[in-house]
Amino acid sequence: MPFRKIRFPGSSLKFLAAVLIGLLLSAPVSFSNEIKETTSVEVEDRDLIHHLLKDEYYIFAQEEAVEYLNRYPNGIFRAEIIFVQAKIDVIQKSYAAALKKYDHLLKRFSDSELFEDSLYLSGILHLKLKQNNKGQDKLQRLIKKYPRSRFLFRTYFHLGELAFKQKNWKTAEVYLKRTVKNGDLKPGQQLEAKNNLAWTYYFQKKYDLANELFQPLLESDLATGHKAKICFQYASDAQKIGDYLAAIKWHEQLMDRWPHPEFINKSRFWIAESLFLLNQTPDPKISAADKQKAILLFGQNLNLKKPIELENTHYHRGWFLLELGKSSRAEADFKWLQKNNAKYGKDIDLTLIRAHYFESLKKWTEANQIYAQSLKLQEHSESRNQLLNRIIKNNYRQKRCKKLINNYKAVDFSVEMTDPDEMHYYAATCLYNAKEWVKAGHVYSKIDPLSRFAPLSFEFYLAVFRKTGQLENAIAYLIQVQDLPHFKDKKRIFLIKTNLYLELKQWHKALSNMKAVVNLSPETKKDPWFLLNVAKTIDQITIAMKNITWREQRPELRPAEYYQQQALIYYQKSYKVMPEKETATRLSILEILLERYEHQKKLKKLIPLYRTAINISTDEHQKNRYIYRLANILIETGEKKDPIISLLTSLHGKANREINYKASALMAELYIAEKNYKEAIETLIDLGQQPIDKTPWYIKVHFRLGELYQSQEKWLTSIRHYSKVVNSKQKGSQEKEARSRLFKIKKFVKQQQSQRKSK
Q1: Helix, strand, coil percent content, the chain, rounded in steps of 5
Q2: Is the pLDDT of residue 22 over 50?
Q3: 333 burial class (0-12, 13-18, 19+ CB within 10 angstroms)?
Q4: DSSP characters over 408-436
Q5: Mind listing the pLDDT tens digit for each residue in 114-133?
Q6: H helical segments located in 130-243
């Protein structure tokens, strides 16, 4: 029964108060006991209210509070009692009533010690009643008025939570950071604050900071739902960037550790979906077991009352079933789609996927049948074009060019489409194979130079130009594509263009083109084969110029010597960067350089080239020829004799006869120049002992020996050698001279003998 209806002897209320005070004397009092000019009765009445509140007699406490306020209109404890009333209202969930009382306190009792408490509690109540602006104002007012309030960090918490709910991330971050670092919250609230702060970082794309909080939260006492949310977000983020393996890992962790009802079914679906998406990437392809797992998870999704992405589930499960060879089950999924969703009757993607299955088996006809069926249902040109594209591609695979051309004619190219150049390429190539050059060229010209099919059609298109005699147009085409990034072989393009210029006798353009390609990139300057090709091309230009008259030459052409010099420059460049292992090529370039420098009589440049040629040549005859020529050059340039003789000596007995003879004769001349007649004679005698009797060398050797012995006044020996020249019957200037000298020496010797006898 209500407390007020119980009757007590005498002053019943005072008696009850005395009893309750006696019983609860030891209970702590929450409010100030300071009394200013008040009666003991008023104190007893106030204390009674507190004891009733403590013992949870809320109705009685409220009644006593009302009576106190009526009894003491100027009571010292009025603010305190109103505060108690508000507290009881809160306990009884009468929040609006409590707010009125707190607001009354804030308005009438601004100097009260309960002002701070009232300000905080009223702010919280406003938030509870979703009066967010009012609640925010009061809590911010509390921070401003009481910067060291005992409610400060709890206020930060509530303001942070409010900002978080309002998606005001920056504000939420400010308050929640203060709460997490310095708060005196309950453990649950602390975890909630950290969780929300982490999400605040996340939504501001401060992912590193977010992860620093998320990771420990997953191992904390945070509620399962929150952990599941974190885990699910990790999975979703991984999926967005295409890291499907990571997405699968996070979804599986969620299911194993935090199987929250809000997320568990979603995770099942997205594991299956991630496996499907992973299978679409080039690498890695998923295993048959993974595909079977995805099929099972898709099936579990379909068993839900509200399946997630119903059409996709059937669609992707059907695809996996096809890949596993379970075509009948796959067909069931596709039929379901067509039956239950009208759009799939005309759905291009479904048509493509069904046809793709047959294409994977290289059953192009069956695939085209599916495309053709769908084609009949299509009303829009865009869809028709897409299907025609696939049909044309399969026609090309089957080499059915007549059907391909007919389907190509049916394409509406006035409508924007993804890749019209693919159809142009297939049609043009069919026409090319049919030797319909003009038609093929017309279709090839429709291919966008920026298309991926432009490089594929490159060779065909050039061939069409040649076959139709359109060399100028071919050059124009090459100029159009030479700077495009997807035409990788720039060097080849320039070489083809150069050859076309040569065919058209546009010599100057040919040369300019070759020079231009050298500057294409740093690579061309270091490509020995390309530089060699440039040199040979310039040689072609030079040869061509020699075969035309001055009337045919264009005014811009320079003398042939200029182009010869240009070729020489590129031969030098090619040789400089040619790999050492390419011995034969290096030697062939050296031969060209040696020939050019010999022609120009640049002896100093020849010396190092001949030395290199000697070192790398593996042909003995060739190497000996180089040694002999080097020796001659060294003589001409005035080099010291010893190294020259050393070179010539190395040929003795190794070189072929001709070189051997030349080397010996040259060595003898070197000795003669040094007046080393002894070595010269020995060298020539050694040469004379070789089989030279039937060669011009016979006369040369014996004539020179005759000269040497004559100069030494060894008349008889000189006569013997001159006689060999005369008796050789090899007519020539030296034979005549030998005969003349022989006559004079014999005459001189007879005179000498006569003079001796007369004495």
Answers
A1: 75, 0, 25
A2: no
A3: buried
A4: HHT--TTS--S-HHHHHHHHHHHHHHTT-
A5: 888 888 898 888 888 888 89
A6: 132-145, 152-165, 169-182, 187-203, 207-218, 224-240
> What is the C-alpha to C-alpha distance for residues 715 and 699, in angstroms, rounded to an integer?
18
Peptide bond before residue 579 is cis, with ω within 30 degrees of 0: no
- 741 in a structural domain: yes
Structural domain boundaries, residue 739: 691-759
Sign of CA dihedral 106, 107, 109, 110: positive
- In this prediction, residue 293 carries a pLDDT of 92
The residue type at 618: T
Phi, psi of 447 (to 5 degrees): -70, 125
| 8 Å CB contact between 88 and 79 | no
Residue 124 is assigned to a structural domain of this protein: no
Q: How far, in Å, are 156, 640, 702, 710 from residue 675 at the CA level?
A: 114, 15, 18, 14
Say whether pLDDT at 29 is over 70: no
pLDDT, greater one: 430 or 604:
430
Q: What is the 3-state secondary structure (H, E, C) of 471-497?
A: HHHHHHHHHHHCCCCCCCCHHHHHHHH
pLDDT digits (tens, 9 = 90+) for 53-102: 888 888 888 888 888 888 888 888 888 888 998 889 898 888 888 888 88
Query: What span, in angstroms and rounded, lies between the C-alpha atoms of 234 and 250?
Result: 7
Q: How many other β-carbons are positioned within 10 Å of the β-carbon of residue 387?
A: 24
**pLDDT average, residue stretch 616-642:** 80
Residue closest to 26 by CA, chosen among 2, 51, 3:
51
- 0.85 exceeded by pTM: no
Residue carrying the six token digits 């939420």: 172
| Residue 531: half-sphere exposure toward Cβ, Cα within 13 Å | 24
pLDDT digits (tens, 9 = 90+) for 337-363: 866 776 776 777 777 777 776 777 788
Question: Is 495 a member of any domain?
Answer: no
Longest dimension (CA), the chain: 202
- 502 has pLDDT over 90: no
Instruction: Number of helices (H) and strands (E) in the chain: give both, helices first.
Output: 39, 0
User: Do residues 651 and 628 lie in contact, with contact meaning Cβ atoms separated by under 8 Å?
Assistant: yes
Name the domain count of the chain: 1
DSSP H stretches of helix in 601-714: 603-616, 620-636, 641-649, 657-673, 677-688, 696-711
H or E segment to which residue 315 belongs: helix 310-323
pLDDT tens digits, one per residue of 397-429: 888 888 899 988 989 888 888 788 889 999 999
360 part of a folded domain: no
When the pLDDT of each residue in the chain is averaged and rounded to a whole number, the result is 80
Q: 30, 67 in Cβ contact below 8 A? A: no
φ/ψ of residue 411, rounded to 5: -75, 135
